Amino acid sequence: xxxxxxxxxxxxxxxxxxxxxxxxxxxxxxxxxxxxxxxxxxxxxxxxxxxxxxxxxxxxxxxxxxxxxxxxxxxxxxxxxxxxxxxxxxxxxxxxxxxxxxxxxxxxxxxxxxxxxxxxxxxxxxxxxxxxxxxxxxxxxxxxxxxxxxxxxxxxxxxxxxxxxxxxxxxxxxxxxxxxxxxxxxxxxxxxxxxxxxxxxxxxxxxxxxxxxxxxxxxxxxxxxxxxxxxxxxxxxxxxxxxxxxxxxxxxxxxxxxxxxxxxxxxx
Length: 268
What we know:
268 residues; Immunoglobulin-like; 13-stranded mixed β-sheet; three-stranded antiparallel β-sheet; 1 helix; 4% helix; globular
């Protein structure tokens, strides 16, 4: 348990006072955090499976506890097992995974004698088409705004996860097509200090309704542009992963399989 010491200062005409208040913070057992994805680039047909593992830390700790001693596999519905190797600190990868449509894939992570798992299918996506730039945007009318456009397929229920990434800051968003079915639509990107010559990379990922809801809640909690949606959150948001060994000790994070469209843009 950690304590916060708060100084309460009272100001008056003739007197002032100072009181020390100790507030105890309960620290729960660390939870495993699993950020797992298989992405298939629709522009060049390349694919990769990446799993990042860490454990939660106390609120005031700044360091991330990365996990390098887990066993990570992905098994398809036909019984083929792929071992996802630990390639760097906290990161497990398998190049050229090549997920197939309408096929179930089960992620399994074995850590501290407990088994964590989730099962997903590939979610398709449409290509990003072009970027529109505006130089008089923002609240001050002087910021550069970018819109990355794509065309939603008509008469289908579609969900998307959008990322705009650059050295000046990252933007994330989640869409469903309830109000733009079959139309041209865009992901919006604006950050401070964006200027001519900056490189911005846009990602549009296919998603299902469950992942859309998961990301929507994370983003509503106020993930900022620097940390990203998979950093420590103000409240627990359950993903699709379960603990098969000890159900109450559920992990945090998500396992998704997405087609991805990538579009790189140089600010004019």
